[in-house]
Amino acid sequence: MRDPVSVLTDKQAKFSRYYGWLIAKACEMGFEVGQGEGYRTDEQAMVYAMGHEGRAALASYLHAAGNPGWAALGDALGDAGNGIVDSLHRDRLAHDIILRKPIGGLLGASSYEPLGVWWEGLDPDCRWGGRWGDYAHFSITHDGRR
Questions:
Q1: CA 16 from chain center: how many Å?
Q2: In sequence order, which residues have a C-beta less than 8 Å from that of residue 56 and are 6 or more positions away?
Q3: Structural domain count of the chain
Q4: Helix/strand/coil for 145
Q5: Which of 35, 54, 71, 136 would bridge with 96, disulfide CB 3.0–4.6 Å?
């Protein structure tokens, strides 16, 4: 049995290689690509997993406890996506991208599908978040996570 660290390191290298191909493919398809979230700290994952209401409650609590900066942070995090504590972003095996039209303007979920299908065809481990409503998410499975 291989060392779990070696398995993760190999997958990170594979993801990095594939991620470069993903960006090139998106450009080939006529998109401009912006960077969304890549690496996520353990603390970020915990906060994202709270959901919108949980983050707002945390910010209110911290603000009331004498930390005035937390009210603004709570507002900023209100628009953050939801996530899971054990996110593949923590393992550097996921990245979100932003697709734009060549003349500017963000694109909707359906615009990501051809790229997502292409990504899934690269390798049996490649997963596209559009299958569960997170259309900007591209990842490689690890330890049963997508």
A1: 14
A2: 74, 78
A3: 2
A4: strand
A5: 136
- Between CA 40 and CA 25 the distance in angstroms is 25
Classified as helix, coil or strand, 98 is: strand
Residue 127 burial (C-beta neighbours within 10 Å; 0-12, 13-18, 19+): buried
Cα dihedral: 12, 18, 23, 28 (round 10): 180
- Report the alpha-carbon distance of residue 60 to residue 64 in Å, rounded: 6
Convert the pLDDT of each residue in 79-108 to its tens digit: 555 667 788 999 999 999 999 988 777 788
Model's pTM, two decimal places?
A: 0.80
pLDDT over threshold 90, residue 111? yes
Query: Does residue 94 belong to any structural domain of this protein?
Result: no
